Queue: 2 jobs
Job 1
Amino acid sequence: YPSSKRCFDCGHIMPKMPLNVREWTCPECGETHDRDVNAAQNILAAGLAVLAYGEAIRPARKLNSQREGKLQRSRKAN
């Protein structure tokens, strides 16, 4: 997922962008982006889209009851 190379405003994807480029201007819409802020906005939007669709990000983790018992005993010992 090209989060730092996709323009948050118009969706244009820059074909190549070296990691040392920290700020860039979209050739399609002219918006200037900080690479990290733009990536964060794109990742947030993708996550919200998944949540709106109702899909789980990952299955809930089940605790092993044997492991859980060991944790409780070690906490009581302290």
Job 2
Amino acid sequence: MGRASLVVAALLMLSAISLVTSRYQARQLYIELGRGQAEARDLDTNWRRLQLERAELARNARVDRAAREELKMIPIVPDRTIYMVQPAPIAGGAQ
């Protein structure tokens, strides 16, 4: 029975080491999962902030104000409008 007891003890030790290793790996994966979820929340928050920023930048009032103040543009008025007339095509098909 001495030899069988040694084999059982060795298998018990291997089983205990395997259990400790698997629990350690499970904890590491749980920590990594938490980090991934936190990163996903951060990315979602940034995405929403960028969507709001894009909507703000595309607003007509902001574009109009930037055109007036930064680019010194003025609204078009009929007396300042120049219409270009396209010349009539030459008959006979000049090459």
